[in-house]
Amino acid sequence: MSSSVVIFNQYYYDLLTKLRKIAKKHREHSETAKRVSDLIKDNYKEFDKSSSEYISYIKENCDDEFWKSYLEVSKEECDEWLKREEVGKVEIFKDISIKDIAKLLRDNFLCHHYISCFYIYKNEMSDESASMILKILQSFDENFELDDEEYKKVISRLNNLKSEKVKTDTSYDSLGNLKDTTIGKIAKEIIEDVNIDKFKQTINNEGDILKALVNPENGLGELFTAVGNKVTNKISSGELSQDLIMKDALKFASILPSMFGGGGGNGGGDDEEGGSKFNMGDMMKMMSAMGAMGAMGGGGGGGGNKKSKMAVNKSGLKKLAKRMELQKKLGKKQ
What we know:
Elements (H helix, E strand, L loop, with lengths): L2 H24 L4 H13 L9 H9 L2 H9 L5 H6 L1 H4 L2 E3 L2 E2 H8 L2 H14 L5 H13 L9 H21 L12 H12 L2 H11 L2 H5 L5 H18 L5 H12 L2 H5 L19 H11 L1 H6 L16 H20 L1
Antiparallel strand pairs: 1-2
Helix pairs in contact: 1-2, 1-8, 8-10, 11-14, 12-14
């Protein structure tokens, strides 16, 4: 069995798993979700990762005209391409079309990520080529060498789409209603000061924000220093209240996944929405590494002029953890 078949099946199964989780979650409120959930249950009770049947299915349903149109579309036209009627009706899984997939994922970049991978790995190639292309796909490196011009074009366009997605997800506008909170206002100042391109490169290189945390020589170091210093100084000067910071931190935590994104090359993590999984423990590690919890919970005496220490406040961590756990339990009961 060739490496290209193995890699194709991994991407194919990854997308199938995402769709299954999303469809199951929303089946009570969406006809599309219910239909897709039932189709996956009926047609994919078992999945043979060594089989070439899934590549054959893609080849049968995605003809030369389909792939020609995909190759010719520009980065700026990618979103509109997905909306084309002739594109939307093309089936990727049994009776599950691109239109269905786009509706459930609600992430055009992810759609293009999988379609690009299917386009490349549906073809026979040496194991060496398959592995080399996989590394390029996972790194999102914009400077890469590749002999096949068509593959190169598809990957370059995908990398550009990824760059645009990161810029959007890390922009101040992505904060939505949180822009008016204390943390949102601080975020605006930080986003204006921090080198977002360097931050983006860090996430792309590490593939995971928590892995990136342990590497001091990266863009995250600048971000965390900026956050910690900004919060500490504002609390020390009396400009910010510790209570307000703690209150807004709980709201702010809910948008961390969309801000940081999933940096891996396999199309994301394993939560129901197809993005990176981000739980309370992850948030604690991040805030602890930033030193921001020390600023939030102690040292400043509630906004006086006394200097705050950039140390982790264990009491603040425990309180925040308990409050988040209580919210989780209440959510389950409802």
